[in-house]
C-alpha cells in the first residue's frame, strides 16, 4: 500500500495496464465467440488464434529493441492509440465473407501488442526504486489476472448484448484511457542509442549466448514455454476425460487458477517483497512444479474434481513468486539501454516454444496420454527452477545502478 500511495507514476502505469488488458480480454473472448458464430468453422477459430500468437514469435525481440531506442512513454501512448484505431474496421463486418477483416485486425493488434510488454517492463525500474521492484512486479503481474477475470466476463456479456460493435466500443475505450494515463507518466530521461536497429537487435541476440544471466533466463523460458503450450492444449481434456467434468467444471477450474494467481501475487507483494529475485524464481518454480505434478497425478488414484481446484489455487502462490522473480531478473540482468531487447527476446522464446508445446501435446496427447504429457510439464517446471538456482550459484551478474534508482513521485 505504501508503494501504491507514494508513487503516482507506478499507480498510473498499473491502472493503464489493468484497463488495456481488460480490453484485450474483452475483444479476444468476444471475437473468438463471434468468429465461430459467424463462420461455424473450427478452422476459422484456429486461424484466429494463430494470427494473434504468431507476432510474439516473429517480432517480440525486435519490439524489445524498439523499446530501447525510442522514448518508452511515447511508444506506449502511440501504440495504444494505434491499437484503438485498428479496431474500427471490425464495425463493418456483417457476414462470413468478411472474416478476413477480423484476421487483419487480429494481426494488426498482435504486431502492435508485442511493443507493450517490453516497453512497460523496461520502463518500470525507472519509476520504482530497486528495493521495491519485486513487489511492484508482483502487483503489475496481478493486473493481468484481474483483467482476465473482468475482461473474459465482459467479453461474453458484450457479444451477447451488443454484438461486435459493443466489443469494439469497450476495447477502443480501454486503449484511450490507457493512453491518457501513460501520457502523464514522468519517466526518467535516457541517452540516445548509438547503434542501428539491426545492430542493436543482433547484439541482443548475442547476449543469449555470451551473457550467463541472460542465457539462464532464455533456457528457463524455453523449458517453461514448452510446458505452457502443453498445459494450454490439454487442460480442457484433463478436466473432461480424466476428471469426468463438463464445461461448467472447466470454467470453475480456470477461475480457481486465476483466483490462486491473484492471491499469490498479493502474498508476494506483502510478504516476499524483499526476497532475492533469483530465489523467488528458482524455488517458486520448483514448488509450482511439485504442486502441478500432484495435480496431474492424483486422479490416477481418486479422480475427484475438488482436489484439482484446491491444488491449482495453491499453485498460484509459487507461480506468482516465480513471475515476480523472473520479471525482476529480466529487468536487472543487463543495462537500461538493452533492457527492452532482453525482455522482448525472452518473450519470443516463450511464445515460440509455447507453439511447439501445443503441437507436441496435439500429436502425443492421444498415444502417450493426457496425464503423462501434463506430468512432463510439471517435471519441466521442477527442472527449470533447479537450473535457475544452480546457474545463479555458479555465475550471475546484475547492475548495481538499478537498485540505486530513485523512486519517482
Automatic annotation (TrEMBL):
Entry annotated with the keyword Transmembrane: yes
UniProt cross-references to Gene3D superfamilies, sorted A to Z: MFS general substrate transporter like domains
Lineage: Bacteria, Bacillati, Actinomycetota, Actinomycetes, Streptosporangiales
Its membrane topology: Multi-pass membrane protein
Name the record gives this protein: Na+/melibiose symporter
Keywords: Cell membrane, Membrane, Transmembrane, Transmembrane helix, Transport
Residue ranges of domain Major facilitator superfamily (MFS) profile in the record: 213-409
CC terms in the record's Gene Ontology section: plasma membrane
PROSITE patterns on file: MFS
Amino acid at each position: 500500500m505504501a508503494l501504491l500511495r507514494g508513487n503516482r507514476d507506478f499507480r498510473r502505469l498499473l491502472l493503464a495496464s489493468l484497463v488495456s488488458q481488460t480490453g484485450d480480454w474483452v475483444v479476444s473472448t468476444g471475437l473468438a465467440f463471434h468468429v465461430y458464430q459467424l463462420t461455424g468453422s473450427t478452422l476459422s477459430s484456429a486461424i484466429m488464434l494463430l494470427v494473434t500468437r504468431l507476432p510474439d514469435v516473429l517480432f517480440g525481440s525486435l519490439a524489445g529493441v524498439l523499446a530501447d531506442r525510442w522514448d518508452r512513454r511515447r511508444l506506449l501512448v502511440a501504440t495504444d492509440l494505434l491499437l484503438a484505431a485498428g479496431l474500427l474496421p471490425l464495425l463493418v463486418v456483417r457476414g462470413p465473407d468478411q472474416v478476413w477483416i477480423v484476421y487483419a485486425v487480429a494481426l494488426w493488434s498482435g504486431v502492435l501488442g508485442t511493443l507493450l510488454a517490453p516497453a512497460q517492463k523496461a520502463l518500470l525500474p525507472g519509476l520504482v526504486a530497486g528495493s521495491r521492484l519485486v513487489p511492484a512486479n508482483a502487483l503489475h503481474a496481478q493486473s493481468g489476472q484481474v483483467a482476465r477475470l473482468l475482461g473474459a466476463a465482459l467479453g461474453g456479456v458484450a457479444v451477447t448484448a451488443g454484438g461486435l460493435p459493443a466489443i469494439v466500443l469497450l476495447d477502443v475505450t480501454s486503449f484511450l484511457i490507457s493512453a491518457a494515463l501513460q501520457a502523464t507518466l514522468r519517466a526518467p530521461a535516457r541517452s540516445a542509442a548509438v547503434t542501428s536497429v539491426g545492430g542493436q537487435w543482433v547484439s541482443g541476440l548475442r547476449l543469449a549466448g555470451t551473457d550467463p544471466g541472460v542465457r539462464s533466463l532464455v533456457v528457463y523460458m524455453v523449458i517453461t514455454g514448452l510446458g505452457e503450450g502443453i498445459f494450454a492444449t490439454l487442460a480442457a481434456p484433463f478436466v473432461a476425460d480424466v476428471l469426468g467434468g463438463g464445461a461448467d467444471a472447466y470454467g470453475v477450474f480456470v477461475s480457481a487458477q486465476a483466483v490462486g494467481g491473484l492471491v499469490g501475487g498479493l502474498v508476494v507483494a506483502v510478504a516476499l517483497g524483499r526476497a532475492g529475485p533469483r530465489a523467488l524464481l528458482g524455488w517458486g518454480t520448483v514448488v509450482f512444479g511439485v504442486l502441478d505434478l500432484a495435480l496431474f497425478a492424483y486422479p490416477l488414484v481418486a479422480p475427484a474434481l475438488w482436489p484439482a481446484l484446491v491444488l491449482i489455487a495453491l499453485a498460484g502462490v509459487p507461480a506468482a513468486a516465480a513471475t515476480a522473480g523472473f520479471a525482476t531478473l529480466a529487468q536487472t540482468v543487463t543495462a537500461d539501454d538493452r533492457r527492452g531487447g532482453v525482455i522482448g527476446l525472452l518473450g519470443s522464446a516463450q511464445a515460440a516454444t509455447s507453439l511447439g508445446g501445443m503441437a507436441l501435446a496435439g500429436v502425443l496427447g492421444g498415444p502417450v496420454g493426457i496425464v503423462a504429457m501434463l506430468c512432463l510439464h510439471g517435471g519441466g517446471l521442477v527442472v527449470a527452477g533447479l537450473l535457475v538456482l544452480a546457474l545463479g550459484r555458479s555465475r550471475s551478474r546484475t547492475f548495481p545502478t538499478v537498485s540505486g534508482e530513485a523512486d519517482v513521485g
